[in-house]
Amino acid sequence: MSAPTMTLHYNPASPYVRKVVILLHETGQFDRVQLQPTVLTPVNPSTELNHDNPAGKLPALRLADGNVIHDSRVILDYLDHQHVGNPLIPREGSARWRRLTLASLADALLDAALLIRYETALRPKELHWPLWLDNQQGKIERTLSYFDQEAITELSAPPFDVAAISVAAALGYLDFRQPDLNWRNSYPRLANWYFEVNQRPSMRATQPSA
Ligand code: BEZ
User: Fold this and answer.
1) In this model, does residue 1 exceed pLDDT 80?
2) CATH superfamily of 6-80
3) 14 CB under 6 A from ligand 1?
4) Looking at the whole model, is its pTM more than 0.70?
5) Of 13, 61, 119, 134, which sees the most CB atoms within 10 A?
């Protein structure tokens, strides 16, 4: 095992970071990266992270030559070009755009879940905006329904690629931050798929924690 050559700004609660670490495991590259613990909220930013990513967003990956790349989608693409196995982001053709679109939809679910998390965990209760929260939750429900009704066959087809990794990380974050949502009752096909993929070593090694 050689010494890590890259440094990843890391927080075990971040689902965007988790996508990157899952891909590192899936492609046999985990040992190439040193994890730099990075604690932040939108009202308590990280000076070190701001230095590497002016937007102050996780994840950011510092390469061996000192260059930094972000956000998670760019990092996934970069890392998928650094291993010799089959690509986890199709390089061309309609499969590329379809898999990236499913991944983007999973990220949109995450964006909504994170906004809800910030609103409910950080904002004073008297300032919560129920209509806004309901509309964020609506995005989550519509997206879960789409994955369950329209995309489950595609998600189930191997390999466990950028689309599947992104959806799995999104579902993991829902379980972590919205444990009472009970999404499995409404979306049983998605629940079965998630039960299977959640057994993967890459998923077990990256369970979210505060
Ligand atoms: C969270 O605690 O939910 C969280 C922390 C860092 C980044 C994203 C989410």
Assistant:
1) no
2) Glutaredoxin (3.40.30.10)
3) yes
4) yes
5) 61
State the maximum Cα–Cα separation within the chain, in Å, rounded to a whole number. 53
* Segments of the chain assigned to CATH 3.40.30.10: 6-80
How far from the centroid of its chain's Cα atoms is residue 132's Cα? 23
* Residue bearing the CA closest to ligand 1, atom 7: 14
Q: With left for phi above 0 and alpha for psi between -120 and 50, is residue 129 left, alpha or beta?
A: beta
Q: Say if ligand 1 is within 6 A of residue 99 CB.
A: no
- Residue 36, strand partner residues: 9
Fill in the DSSP letter of residue 41.
B
- CA of 177, closest atom in ligand 1: 3
Cα–Cα distance measured from residue 167 to residue 165, given in angstroms and rounded to the nearest whole number = 6
Which pLDDT does position 82 carry in this prediction? 97
Residue 2 banded pLDDT, cuts 50, 70, 90 = confident
18: its two tokens = 């988790």
CATH 1.20.1050.10 fits 93-200, yes or no: yes
Residue 126 has pLDDT above 90, yes or no: yes
- 139 in contact with ligand 1, CB cutoff 6 A: no
Closest C-alpha residue for ligand 1 atom 6: 14
Q: For residues 119-132, give the mean pLDDT.
A: 96
